[in-house]
Amino acid sequence: MTAELATPSRPVAHRGRGIVLILLAALFFGTSGVLGKPAMQAGLSPEQVAAIRIGLSAIVLLALVAVFRPKLLRVRKREWPLLLAYGSLGVAGVQLMYFLAAGRIPVGIAILLEFTSPVLIALWVRFVRRVRLPRAMWAGIALAMAGLMLVAQVWEGLSLDVVGLLAGLGAAVCSAGYFLLGERGVAERDPLGMVTWGMTIGAVLVCVVAPPWTVPWGVLGTATTFGPWHPPVWLLLIALVLIATVLAYATGMTALRHLPASVASVVGLVEPLIAAAAAWLLLGEALSWIQAAGAVVLLSGAYIVQLNSHVVQTDSTLLEAP
User: What is the SS3 assignment for 223?
Assistant: First the structure.
């Protein structure tokens, strides 16, 4: 097989397109909570919802790519380590570590820990890749993290659980891996091929934790509350697969062709805001005035980062292997 079959030509980076794509990815990812929570209330465990979500997404992607773009499934030997790392960290790791953390510490703390990944990415870029980030970008990251703390209301119900805290930090590391490995991967592979193999690898790992034969499949036909509607659980899971997973990962990976990971990860912080707004509209979980203020602070920080993204994007060393 030739290299051209697995390696697309590198497109010209377009910052505006990247911003739009990462915001779309945040929008799609942000719906996962409101789509998955009714399924859990109907009787599925978080691990089972994650297994169904990733497993069905892998099947959908493999089927579509096999029919319409089969060349994307061809993998060179030297590409397997990156794909295995991406599927393990960026797909399975994020899901499992977050659920483990949320089961032992307050959800707000778990969310905050997972979304500290922009700080980890900035530190990686600065000290491993030795790329100097503008001071304004550091200020924007700090502002966004402060806003996230307000949105998550981390001071409520705080209790120290070492395993939960370590799992939350593990989720942050895995989330950083999603951006950094994705940035590296789409430099050589088509984003759709990257997502398809990553999802497939992640599905195998997650199904080890929550085997399909342990899922109470009878729950899928149960009607559940979703805003003013009462759809069956299976319909929400289909939306979770197609919108919050397939479209979310595809747009997120494509965005990394146009934005460095250090920028995309911060702009992606709007995801908790979208999740909170969706929960308010569809699940009746209202935002407090402190959370609303935090949303403004978070968005301000993300805006400052994206204003300075052109400084980082034009540094060619950012896309080189560490």
Answer: strand
CA Rg, the chain, in Å? Answer: 19
What are the CA-CA distances from residue 102 to residues 136, 167, 169 (Å)? 32, 9, 12
Specify the pTM. 0.84
Alpha-carbon gap, residue 183 to 181, rounded angstroms: 5
Q: What are the structure tokens assigned to 265, written together? A: 């990860």
Closest CA to 276 of 173, 137, 133, 152: 152
At position 262, the amino acid (one-letter code) is: S
Tens digits of per-residue pLDDT, 103-156? 777 666 677 778 888 888 888 888 888 888 888 889 989 998 898 888 777 776
pLDDT digits (tens, 9 = 90+) for 24-41: 999 999 888 889 888 988
Q: Which H/E stretch holds residue 239? A: helix 233-241
Q: Is the pLDDT of residue 157 over 50?
A: yes
The per-type count for the chain, helices as H runs and strands as E runs, is 17, 0
Structure token pair of residue 56: 């069905």
Q: Is 130 helix (H, G, I), strand (E, B) or coil?
A: coil
CB 248 within 8 A of CB 29: yes
| 202 token code pair | 């992640």
Does pLDDT of 307 surpass 60?
yes
